[in-house]
Design goal:
The complex is a heterodimer of chains A (about 250) and B (about 220). With about 250 residues, chain A is an alpha/beta fold. Chain A is built from ten helices and ten strands. The chains are: A alpha/beta (about 250), B mainly alpha (about 220).
Chain lengths: ~250, ~220
Amino acid sequence: MARDKIEVQNFNFYYGDFQALIDLNFAIQKNRVTALIGPSGCGKSTFLRSINRMNDTIKNTRTVGKILLDGKNIYDEDVDVTNLRQQVGMVFQRPNPFPQSILDNVAFGPRVLGMTSKNDLGDIVQESLEGAGLWNEVKHRLSDPALDLNPGQQQRLCIARAIAVKPDVILMDEPCSALDPIATLHIEDLMRELAKDYTIVIVTHNMQQAARASHFTGFFWLGRMVEFGKTGDLFAAPQQELTEAYITGRRG
Amino acid sequence: MRARFENQLTKLRDHVLRMGSKVQKQLDMALDSLTNLDADLAQQVIVFDQEINDSRFSIEERCVELIATQQPAASDLRFIVATLNIIVDLERMGDQSKGIAGEVKHLCKHGKKPKLDQIQKMGNLAKDMFEQCLLAYTQKNVELAQVIYNRDDEMDDLYDSVITQLIENMAETTKQKKIEVAYETLRIAEKLERFADLVTNFAERIVYIATGDIQETNV
């Protein structure tokens, strides 16, 4: 149990009358990469956004059930959503650096959290850029505009920005879909590296990516978790016919 | 794209079956050459082996191409990986028939064939098992594949009794020619027993394709 970072218990999610997630029950292990796969509209992104309550910003939605982070239900009334989002960071499909310098992008979160010391900020910027595998490429031009970086670098900058506030969990929603194959492999390597310190949950349409980069894979279909298991097992010998049909391309 | 891949997988299966029927034909020829002490036929068996080896490499190339271009998963992946193993077993089955033909050529020189019913039985059992195995493969029939494991035990028992018999024969005689015939016969029995082991390996791969379980039954 100690390895379970996130426990999903009878979790349901509704957009108005439409039930997008149905009775989810599974656990995400600490310091592992967990990939969520499934066709468009299956609920995997909705689920991802439920882990840091990003869906709260959408009107007319409601949840039933629990998502426990370190044993605490994040939907409890006493949960501070800002703290939650610091603890559970997110990286999006398209790199979205702020139109500021590289340094200011990474220092943004720590500053919001009240860090002012230039030395401390400098340290955390370097640490975060190193963690995101970008430091060597940008250390001599930290004051350059972030938007001058190529897309792969921008995405790693966004990862650096996410880890600068020292989260426990990093959610990635299709983080490589706007990147070329080399930049994609770079991010995938980074995911495994980051998993040493963080718990990574990634939504991807790219099944090869899930197969390559993750330890565990969950397959979503019409709002349900059809199968969840070790990635090697799920891709070599899935237990459910629906999983088999989806990953072999017979259905999707 | 899925339809194209499906088509490629069907073709792959057909190629394996075609290679299988070549191996069948080769075993038939080898056993016929033994029954009739036909050195020419035995020689044909030896030459034919090259065709089986060629099939193996061309199927292997197909498998590698499918893995590279289709990135197969789940049962597709298992099917292709199993095929890579199956064709090696098929090729080795071919080698056993070729080996039998080699022994038959020696026997032809002596002009004597073994007087053992059990050798005939072993040959028939090997043929039966293999036919059943090809059927199980075509139908992805796990139960049928598992029947083959039991038949391999039958083969082992036959083999043991053949050895006992041949050793007795050798002990009773002082004639070199008789001992030589017994020795060639023993080597033929050994190759038939090995053939059946390879059929069993094939059957294990059929179970793997269908279920994902890898079992080792030849212990």
